[in-house]
Amino acid sequence: VMRVGTRRGPEATSRIAMSLPKLEFAKTGRSTCRECGEGIAQGVMRVGIEAFVAGRVCDCWSHVKCSLGAMFLEKCTAARGKCKATDEPFKKGDVRLAVCSKAHKAYYSMAGMGDAVRPIVEASEGEYAASDITGFLALSKEERAAVCAAIDVKATASAKKRSRRGSDVTIAEVTMAAEKDEKKAAADTPASANRRSGRRSSAVSAPPAPATPAEDEKGEEAGDSDGLTEFERQREELIARNKARMAALNIGTLASEVATASAKPANGPSQRGIGSKRKKEPKEDAGPPRRSLRGQKIAPDATLAGGVDYERRDGTVILANGMYSGSGTRSDSPPPPSRPTGDVKLNSVNGEESADEAFISFLRDTLSGVTAASSDFGDGVTIKHDRGSFTSAKSLVGAKIKLTDDAVAKVVPRGVTHLDLAPYDPDGPLVAAAGDKDGNVGLWRVDYEAPGGADDEGDGSDDGVLFYKPHGSYICHLKWGRGGLAGRLLTCAYDGAVRTLDAEKGIFTELFVSEDEDEFSACDVTADGRTIHLSDNVGNYHVVDARSGKLTSPVVQLHEKKINTVHLEPGAERAVATSCGDQTVCVWDVRKCGKGAKPLSRLQHSKSCQAAYFAPNGSGELLTTCYDDLIRVWRPKSGADAGLVNDDPKSCLKIKHNNQTGRWVLPFRAVWTPAGDGVVIGSMRREIELFESSCGKLAGKYSDAERMTAIASRYAVHPSKDIIAAGTASGRLHIYRK
Fold this sequence. Notes:
Blueprint: E1 2-3, H1 14-17, E2 22-25, E3 45-53, E4 56-63, H2 64-70, E5 72-75, E6 95-101, E7 104-108, H3 113-123, H4 141-151, H5 157-165, H6 171-187, H7 192-202, H8 213-221, H9 230-248, H10 251-262, E8 308-311, E9 317-319, E10 324-326, E11 329-331, E12 344-345, H11 353-374, H12 393-399, E13 408-410, E14 416-421, E15 431-436, E16 441-445, H13 454-457, E17 465-468, E18 475-480, E19 489-493, E20 497-502, E21 507-513, E22 520-525, E23 531-536, E24 540-545, E25 550-551, E26 556-557, E27 563-568, E28 575-580, E29 584-589, E30 601-604, E31 609-614, E32 622-626, E33 630-634, E34 653-656, E35 671-672, E36 678-682, E37 688-692, E38 698-702, E39 712-717, E40 724-728, E41 732-736
Antiparallel strand pairs: 1-2, 2-3, 3-4, 5-6, 6-7, 8-9, 9-10, 10-11, 12-21, 13-41, 14-15, 15-16, 16-17, 18-19, 19-20, 20-21, 22-23, 23-24, 24-25, 24-26, 27-28, 28-29, 29-30, 31-32, 32-33, 33-34, 35-36, 36-37, 37-38, 39-40, 40-41
Helix pairs in contact: 3-4, 6-7
């Protein structure tokens, strides 16, 4: 930092130096030019004058060019004020120069304006001169000559050489030269110690005075064959020494590596999937502006005078005269169905017919063997759980799974509500499925590579993602079937319908539809695929025969509020667990779920429970997720029948976890690892966390701030591979694997 003005001797006071404008390189990028209002970037030369602002004295900064443009010359109209540089009073008629920073001005006389303005003019690199200052032409010829002599930079021989080399005086060099001058001045003065300490405390260092032509000629006569002044030689030595030190420390290579490592992708979240390379349809013509009948001077329709009778759940209204109205239009026809009826063909929303055919063919080839084997799955047959063949928490930690660019894709348009990975062939292709809030179901061939020319066809098959519309509202359950439903994708939604994806027929088969407009909130299916267990938003429990599509028993109310999850105990399937918003998780005997049924175990929580799942290894442990910021693992009662869980809160394992997802993120639902030894859940820090179910210890965290930019609230673990899939509110799936 330096004060503008020539180098003064030891007799110069700090008060005069403090009255000169400052000229320095901006230390940061936080300052703003008072003239143009734009920011001053770090390292850019700036000019500052002291002003009284908001009850204190501070520096007001401006760009060099803005400061020169705001200056003006004038004649004093009265004997008022003093020169900021010489402290001499102005006389009437004296020429003075004003250095401005918005409304604040500092005036300098003819004797002081050179020290104040000449360095600023020199910093403009020849773009400004004394004749460019406002008010210059209004002065007399003699006054103009005096101003030019005081302000204009002399074109000395050394100055010309500096301009040819294009070199600038840096802050470090000016400071070094100023310190040498101070030492020299201190040696010649008896009170040198006091003046030197005063200069250090005020942190003021003045630049050397510009060399005159006479000094340059004297230097050349003395033997300066290179044409450089002493100051320039010292500067060249300093530059050479700094370059050598930087080369020895390998600063250039290290800086480039840091810049490359810190560079972030410009595109933000992954654009693969249904959001990539899609041509937006042109907007339809809005037509003429809508105007009321009164504005059009048209008499109102007498048939509409009765108004609205009632409004339906989907937003349509029934008028008092019995007519239907939807989206502001009259219609005598009945309202359209809120959900697809019957079987739904596999016609994707985002792909062409060729892409649909290719995808159906892929599903048939991949799932045909599994589907054929499911027909041999009869009554009384259970799925054996070999812990060694399933993915465990230990294997996930040892695999060091991570996220890559090709493992992220937008699979559904809205937020992911459920997802699952096809569990069939460990060595086969990886297929992920996801459902969203609008009833869409997306399928993603994760390892799919488009053949040559697929990008040009634009049929939607270039990234392996296609999504369908088998439901009309929120998907509450989505699971690849096993046992009797192997090779099929089971889906259930708030629209009261249960469907399975049948690749052999190329349709979503309708298994069951509620005739009472029930909104199903949870679902589970027995291992043989013949019985469906459903719950709704008012706490009712439904049992459906999947073969006939009818209820096997009357509907029973198990809770007074919405049931969030329904889960059958693996193995014998004699117990079912329900989690509810009434702060309880209950375990019921499937055989005794009639009217007046009582739970085998009632697990009380302090807040709403979002999920309850039995351990997949058949141990009888129950995993619950609650809004009270706890994940609990409830142990079975020793020696008790299947499904009987110890309901003592002190006996369960409690894992502290922030479950406050807020309004816009779906509540967390912790899930088991397939081996039953770990718990997987998301985090408000955009991470996937893995806990050990035996002790609650955090075993691992998985995150990627550049690729997973949202909070994941739904997850699935592949049964036999070290893979974790996470879904976010943007409709994207993130596949963590080796």
